[in-house]
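During data preparation, a discrete fold description was generated, as reproduced here:
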Amino acid sequence: MTDAPGTNRIGRIMALDVGSKRIGVAVTDPLGITAQGLDTIQRQNKRRDLEALRSVLTKYDVREIVVGLPLRLSGDEGTQSEKMRRFADDLHARFGLTIHLWDERWTSTEANRLLRETDLSIRKRGQAVDRIAAILILQSWMEAHPTR
């Protein structure tokens, strides 16, 4: 089923900032206007990571997923980009949702900058950076795709 241009489908969009230890998660609000950070997922293994993501997909009625694509500063892809492409393929195969890869080059840097301006301890900042990065990925994607 295809939607007419400019119409919003039911369901939210989720963004992921996938690292080796944690997955930062953000979802749109029900109207698709803002990005909201969710609890960060502590990575364990592929099966448990996907189970945790399934729980979020179901709870928030997610219809599309945006995965941060780590590019080199030049814009070229490297080893990490290939890992994210495989992760995105796994998500699509497991959940059957549309997966978008989105440039995440500056999101962690920006997240760290924003968190330095808060009163959070260094430990708490470390825990929040993945969530903030996921929010920034989702906001950037939403700005580039305003009719979704």
Remarks:
- The radius of gyration is 15 Å.
- Confidence is low (pLDDT under 50) at residues 1-8.
- The chain has four helices and six strands.
